[in-house]
Write a structure and sequence with these properties.
Blueprint: H1 2-11, H2 16-44, H3 51-69, H4 79-102, H5 110-128, H6 130-135, H7 144-169, H8 184-204, H9 214-242, H10 257-265, H11 267-279
Length: 282
């Protein structure tokens, strides 16, 4: 709560340099720290990777998208502009990985090393980068930050609903071999609480969330709530394969950065795509 309060306070600051600067620093930190934890899980699993190359690429990806969103680079006024940048960046990143593998004497399994490094970049910085694309979404009069607030609150209320209801009345396990604590009752609580939060935000912030009707709020509440649970299960699978309980120890009682971001990673692109193709008509 303290972390997200600080992030959102900076995001909504009236001082443009503070708002943009803190936002970029936080995004780069989350991407780099989360990616480092992922590569740590991969190494614990016995999988080879190029962590420094991946971290360097993740920082460049976040920085390039920020420059597009703030207007420093051409094409920032269209969603396709930053998407074209990401496509070109990923092509060059894969090419760079292949060249890096040519000079590697430690990792002889080139296919596996390249695959793990690339997947880490896609799983953490690339998915997380959709938060920036929501924040700087063109044509909605600077209200992108309210959609960032919206999808983070709905996602975290889903986490809260799953934990609270699952702890109180959870009896039927979802996938115990992956996450013994997840129950179907908790999943129902996640959907109910996330949908309620979505409707409440649509009611109180409707003028700042263009296109978000009560019907869209219900659909997004269910979709984001479901994806949040799936994102949590996906990270749980990675941790179980690496034989660790938490991805890190940065946050007592929570774990690491990935434990904080797992439910947001897939919800960010879902929110962006819903915003682009269903809420904001060209």
């Amino acid at each position: 709560m303290v972390l997200w309060t600080a992030i959102l306070a900076a995001l909504f600051s009236e001082h443009p340099l503070l708002s943009a600067g803190v936002f970029l620093v936080v995004m780069v930190f989350l991407a780099a720290a989360g990616l480092a934890e992922f590569y740590g899980l991969a190494r614990a699993r016995g999988l080879a990777c190029f962590p420094r190359w991946g971290l360097f690429g993740g920082v460049l990806l976040m920085g390039g998208t920020f420059l597009h969103g703030t207007g420093w680079l051409r094409g920032h006024d269209l969603p396709a502009g930053v998407n074209d940048f990401e496509t070109g960046f990923l092509i060059l990143f894969v090419l760079g990985l292949c060249v890096r593998q040519f000079f590697s004497r430690d990792h002889t399994a080139g296919l596996g090393t390249i695959a793990v490094t690339l997947f880490g970049l896609m799983y953490v910085p690339w998915l997380l980068n959709f938060i920036q694309k929501i924040h700087f979404f063109p044509g909605i009069s600077g209200n992108g930050k309210f959609y960032v607030l919206y999808f983070i609150v709905v996602t975290k209320f889903s986490d809260t609903g799953a934990y609270a209801v699952g702890s109180l009345i959870g009896r039927h396990k979802m996938i115990p071999r992956i996450s013994p604590g997840k129950t179907w009752e908790g999943f129902g609580g996640a959907l109910a609480i996330s949908t309620g939060a979505s409707l409440a935000l649509a009611h109180y912030l409707g003028h700042r969330l263009p296109g978000l009707t009560p019907w869209h709020a219900v659909v997004l509440g269910v979709v984001l709530g479901t994806a949040a649970v799936m994102g949590d299960l996906i990270e749980s699978r990675f941790k179980r394969e690496a034989a660790v309980k938490d991805s890190g120890r940065l946050f007592p009682g929570i774990g690491g950065i990935l434990d904080l971001l797992d439910s947001l990673l897939f919800n960010a692109p879902i929110m962006y795509l819903y915003l682009r193709y269903l809420l904001i008509q060209p």
